[in-house]
Amino acid sequence: MKSKQLESTNGSHTSLLIFDTGDEVASVLLEYARTRHITAAHFTAIGAFRSVTLGYFNWETKTYEPIPIREQVEVLSLIGDVAIDPEGQPVIHAHVVVGRSDGTAYGGHLLEAHVRPTLELVLTESPAHLQRHFVPESGLALIRI
Question: Which residue in 128, 123, 125, 127 sits closest to 11, CA to CA?
Fold first, then answer.
């Protein structure tokens, strides 16, 4: 993955991240957030994956049910945020819609995705901090405002 800062104004920074073939999106983006000490950001991306695992949150079991897609797909929309978890570490929360060759689309929580040939991601950092806290009812760490 390569990155370039595009803009920096009033404590907000916008960067372009270009993922290469084979990059695993969630882990590479998380490492980027960790090394740059990002505490609040949002991002959007387009590109393509050679494979992706989506997740559907099952309210009853409080777990993500995996939806594996083991074929080349277009990334129609990838959106998400970076926030700090209760232990002070950055976490990625992203949803993605992918399109298959027949035009059908699948969407869900991004669990894992491998890029092919590229993914173009625009990340905008905020000078504020976004903090997640655990909510027992949902079993999720949600952003606290």
Answer: 127
- pLDDT of 80 reads 98
In this prediction, residue 32 carries a pLDDT of 98
56 alpha carbon, distance to own chain's centre: 15
Cβ density class 94-117: b for 16+ within 10 Å, e for less = bebbbbeeeeeeeebbbbbbbbbe
Domain ranges of the chain: 2-134
| pTM of this structure | 0.90
Q: Domain 2-134 is of which CATH architecture?
A: 2-Layer Sandwich (3.30)
| Cα distances (Å, whole numbers) of residue 77 to 31, 40, 49, 73, 140 | 22, 20, 12, 12, 23
- Residue 16, pLDDT > 80, answer yes
